[in-house]
Write a structure and sequence with these properties.
This protein has two domains: about 230 residues, P-loop containing nucleotide triphosphate hydrolases (Rossmann fold, 3-Layer(aba) Sandwich), CATH 3.40.50.300; about 240 residues, P-loop containing nucleotide triphosphate hydrolases (Rossmann fold), CATH 3.40.50. The protein is built from 17 helices and 22 strands. β11 and β12 form a beta hairpin. It binds adenosine-5'-triphosphate and magnesium ion.
Length: about 500
């Protein structure tokens, strides 16, 4: 559809309302997007960003309000209607069918089934798409075997394969490392040149200033304001989102480092972990970083007993452990907060209270029966300290915003009172205010003598919150940085590339 009058926005959403039981997710939200514009939609976890774009993608029907494309009102009664209106949405939660391959997922719903030639053509097209994105994704393995980052790239390819005028990306970079984000930005700039309007959601503030033309902020389901990116400052944006200012984004506290608590020696499994050795001391936060597939998550899984060691030893407080399963690890006092909260972190069809209680059953039970008041009280403490946004504790996990789901997973493991905590991307998808709270929590854990491994792709976070940094590449530790006063992002990237 051509946009004849230059002043008519490509997309105009006005007075959008949406409520769920106990939650007013959107109250009178408006938004304007022009051709070739990148609009950053900002707000805390639960502010209503995903809900707003779900009404645009035809996944939710707004209770009130209008949506106009090129000045014409449209009714987006289903995802298909939205695609037909030229709207592509990359959702925060992936919609990939785990059993299908990447290319089957990309053409799902549009495939010419049974026609061998057509299928071959689709596979070829998918390969071409990945090439144009500059990514290397195995074509013929089921998506469930792909990493979170790879799945995200498949989602992006899927949206790009549809002919869209408006492309919405709900936290597309959450699982990506800096290099991949750069590739994504190159794609966005190219789409922009072609006149496509883009709505971009991210909790990584650096990205917003790099890619966005305009910034729109929501808070508590309400429109707070918008401004051209050039007129916005980081502090001002944080204030608009959180409603208060945050002085120091990385409030790292110096702690007294004590004896070695966790020691791993020669951890190996295939090519993903090769002879990985390191120690973590009492009170220490060890940052572990690297590119996608560098072996960080694999190392964590080996320590946690989620994957079987081919070689190597793990010891805690000088005692060698025999960890064969996560149960063994938990018993020994080692916890892992996984990066993939959707499949490994939460039972989505259960309440958040139950999810919290699950690994803590013994502690929260009396004579074998779950002590619900005790569970509720314990969970309530985390709801307060982590600002988890829920109308009631019986809310189903699947109804929480992405960032709030992550906080529930965090609460669940913190309650374990482990001695060694491994956080795999702890602040992925978490808003700037809550990040600050999580950093303070990590400080507190360190001050209490815990040993902490923080896996993160977000370099400012790794630099800002670690006492020491290990960098991995292709399953090996390629560097160690101990002087945190002089470390730079470039220095880490060099080690990460190998
Ligand atoms: N299907 C649903 N049922 C009940 N409540 C819902 C549902 N979907 C969203 N909500 C609620 O609506 C509010 C807005 O959620 P939304 O997912 O839009 O937030 P968000 O801004 O995308 O947050 P995040 O940054 O964490 O992704 C939240 O309080 C959330 O719990
Ligand atoms: Mg969201």
């Amino acid at each position: 559809m051509a946009n004849k009058q230059p002043n008519v926005p490509l997309l105009q959403m006005s007075g959008i309302e949406k409520s769920f039981p106990g939650v007013r997710a959107l109250s009178g939200v408006s938004l304007k997007l022009h051709k070739g514009e990148v609009l950053a939609l900002m707000g805390e976890n639960g502010a209503g960003k995903s809900t707003l774009i779900k009404t645009l993608g035809g996944a939710h029907q707004p209770d009130a309000g209008t949506i106009c494309i090129d000045g014409q009102p449209v009714k987006l009664s289903s995802p298909t209607a939205a695609i037909q209106a030229g709207i592509g949405v990359i959702y925060q939660e992936f919609n990939l069918i785990p059993a299908l391959t990447a290319w089957e997922n990309i053409f799902l719903g549009r495939e010419k089934s049974g026609v061998f030639v057509a299928r071959k053509e689709e596979r070829r097209k998918a390969a071409e798409l990945f090439r144009s994105l500059g990514v290397d994704i195995p074509l013929d393995v089921p998506c469930r075997q792909l990493s979170v980052a790879q799945q995200q790239l498949v989602e992006i390819a899927k949206a790009l394969s549809q002919d869209v005028n408006i492309l919405v990306m709900d936290e597309p970079s959450a699982a990506l490392v800096p290099q991949e984000v750069e590739k994504l930005f190159a794609i966005i700039r190219d789409l922009q040149k072609r006149g496509i309007g883009i709505v971009y959601i991210s909790h990584r503030l650096d990205e917003i200033f790099e890619i966005a033309n305009t910034i729109t902020v929501l808070r508590d389901g309400k429109y707070v304001g918008d401004a051209p990116a050039t007129e916005m400052t980081r502090q001002k944006m944080i204030e608009m989102m959180v409603g208060r200012s945050i002085e120091n984004e990385f409030p790292k506290q110096a702690t007294q480092r004590g004896d070695v608590r966790l020691s791993v020696d020669g951890l190996s499994r295939g090519t993903s972990a090769r002879n990985v050795s390191f120690d973590v001391r009492r009170g220490e936060v060890l940052g572990l970083t690297g590119l996608m597939g560098a072996g960080r998550t694999e190392t964590a899984r080996l320590i946690f007993g989620a994957d079987k060691l081919e070689a190597g030893t793990i010891s805690l407080d000088g005692k060698t452990l025999n960890i064969r399963s996560p149960q063994d690890a938990i018993k020994a006092g080692i916890c892992l907060l996984t990066e993939d909260r959707k499949t490994q972190g939460l039972v989505l069809c259960r309440s958040v209270r139950e999810n919290f209680g699950l690994p803590n059953l013994k502690e929260l039970s009396t004579a074998g029966i779950v002590n619900k008041p005790k569970e509720r009280e314990a969970f309530g403490r985390y709801v307060d300290s982590l600002s988890i946004r829920i109308p009631f504790q019986e809310q189903l996990a699947k109804n929480l915003s992405g960032g709030n789901q992550q906080k529930v997973v965090l609460a669940k493991w913190l309650q374990q009172n482990a001695e060694v905590l491994i956080f795999d991307e702890p602040t992925r998808g978490i808003d700037v205010g809550a990040k600050h709270e999580i950093y303070q929590l990590i400080n507190q854990l360190a001050a209490n003598g815990k040993a902490i491994i923080m896996i993160s792709s977000e370099l400012p976070e790794v630099i800002g919150m670690s006492d020491r940094i290990l960098v991995m590449h292709e399953g090996r530790v390629t560097g160690e940085i101990t002087d945190m006063s002089s470390v730079t992002q470039e220095q880490i990237m060099e080690l990460a590339i190998g």
